[in-house]
Amino acid sequence: MDLVREEEDANKLQFGPEFDQAGMLSTSEVAYLFQQRQAKGDATTFTPVFNATLTYTQTFSKLKSKAAIQESRKVLMDHKALSPFERAQLINLSPVTVAEAKHLIPSLGDLDDDEDPENRLTDLDLQDLLDELKRLRSYT
Amino acid sequence: MTKDIMMHPSSFGRKLHEEVKKALLKEVEGTVDPFYGYIVQVTSINDLPLGEIREGGLVNFHVSYKAIIFRPFRNEVIEAVVSRVDQIGIHFSAGPLQGLIPKSDRSDMKYDPNSAAYNFPEYSLKEGEHVRLRIVSLTFHATDIFSLGTIAEDYLGPI
């Protein structure tokens, strides 16, 4: 029985060296990927893990179209201060206020007063971003 | 990600890459890796390196591949489904991840066996409902990951 390493902490964006270069997909994006692969006829091994994950992504997906996903990804990538984890979580959890976003994703709290403008995301910027993501959730 | 795959010479021929891919999928898909979590679906395999002959004539291929993984992290907030409630607490599942919000999580949660629900001042939770929780701890086993979670915070609870 392995316990997760003590240093692992999503609130501090500490995920372990294996994830330094990893992309992090949102649930919505994985739902879309599974759909695409199925449509292409890619052979999928239907393990219990795959089936459970497929159902989960369909249940909790927030973005209903390729356009919504692409636009959301683009606006999130435009904000260079964000980390891959924060971007995925902003899609997954769909917070509507800055307070909600910072409670759910505490690492966002470190961004509002960074000295380096490349690394800064003010509360105003964040609210604009949340509003935009909310708009994209209603794209069909 | 990488994996060592042992192949028997009877599978050699023009379709070797296919055979190695099949063997890789069979070995890793659906399993739990101690670092990467659940390996849900292999998406691509890099060009095969040269195989190394091992004892007995089997050949080992050190395969590099990409996969979609499901890797929850400590302190991550996730959305989950209540799978059942009982006197221990609120059991949840998020895809292949199973977990528990123990009865001790909040002093204001009360189990009502008659309605098979947990009652809180402002809401109740029962099987099938959706809940937003923060992962407090994770335990990785050979074939599954188990989590303890909390909803004792603002913005957590029913979705």
Mean pLDDT across the residues of chain B is: 95
What would you call the shape of chain B?
elongated
What structural category do the secondary elements of chain B indicate?
Answer: mainly beta
Query: How many beta strands in the DSSP annotation of chain A?
Result: 1
Please, how many helices of chain A? 6
| Percent in strands of chain B | over 45%
* Quaternary structure state of the chains depicted: heterodimer
Reported for the largest beta sheet of chain B, the result is: 5 strands, antiparallel
Distance N terminus to C terminus of chain B? Answer: 35 Å
* Overall radius of gyration of chain B: 22 Å
| N-to-C span of chain A | 45 Å
User: What would the principal axes of the Cα set say about the shape of chain A?
Assistant: globular
- Radius of gyration of chain A, in Å, reads 16 Å
Sketch the topology of chain A as an H/E string, one letter per element: EHHHHHH
Q: What's the helical proportion of residues of chain A? A: 40-55%
Strand content of chain A: under 5%
| Total beta strand runs of chain B | 14
Model description:
The complex is a heterodimer of chains A (140) and B (159). Chain A is mostly helical and 140 residues long. Helices cover 51% and strands 1% of the residues of chain A. Chain B has 159 residues and is mostly beta strands. The longest helix of chain B has 13 residues. Chain B is elongated and about 65 Å long. Chain B starts with a strand and ends with a strand. The interface between A and B is large, with 41 and 38 residues. Strand 1 of chain A pairs antiparallel with strand 12 of chain B, so a sheet runs across the interface.
